[in-house]
Amino acid sequence: MKYPSASPVPNDINTSKSDGSSVVSKLTSPSVHSSSNKTDGKMIASIAEEDAIQELPEWCDKNKVKKALTKRKKRTPHQRNRDDFAKKARKNYDDKKYKHAFKIATQQYYDIITGPNNGKRGFGIRSVVAAVNAEFLSGENDRQLKAQTVMDAVNAKRAGKSPLKMGRPEVVPKKFTKALALHGTMMQVTAAGGEASGKKMQTIIKAMSDETEWD
Description:
The protein is mostly helical. Among the domains are: 96-162; 174-208. It has 7 helices and 4 strands, in the order E-E-E-E-H-H-H-H-H-H-H. The chain has helices at 34-54, 62-69, 77-113, 125-136, 147-155, 174-190, 198-209, and strands at 13-14, 17-18, 21-22, 26-27. It has a two-stranded antiparallel ribbon. A two-stranded antiparallel sheet has the order 2-3. Strand 2 and strand 3 form a beta hairpin. Helix 3 (77-113) crosses helix 5. The radius of gyration is 36 Å and the shape is flat.
């Protein structure tokens, strides 16, 4: 019976002896290094992609094609909600810092103009605002207090109170909308009287606003 002849040992295999026996100690073939294979594969793909873009006809906008090929994957709703939550949390934190500083600045300035230090050097509105900004709003992206804003609030007898909100004043009070939302939620949860449809909610709104200024 004839056995197949043994194939020669490849040059990239180290057959050095260890402990008196011949062993394969190291492979230099790229197939062993999976991580380097992945990196090489990405590089090759990137080079091939670049070459393919360069071979496009002249009338084709190569920059737009490249942007389309390298466009980032669309974010999932979970990722969007997580980003929105982080932004809202940061905005809420910054707003609270500004309100706290505003209350302190207006109260300090009111105490100065109604006390014995009124008119003295170093007790003006600019000094108060600068000191409060340095202590409470020293961050790089912090919204800074302005002297005119603090002065207007004190003149309007709003010392020690939160700054007024931007925009038009509320027409319907929050208690009204919260009560309506709570009633609709309980209808959905308990299934009392069926689903909270638009027609039923209109009836509830009429009943809540009857003989009031929002009727």
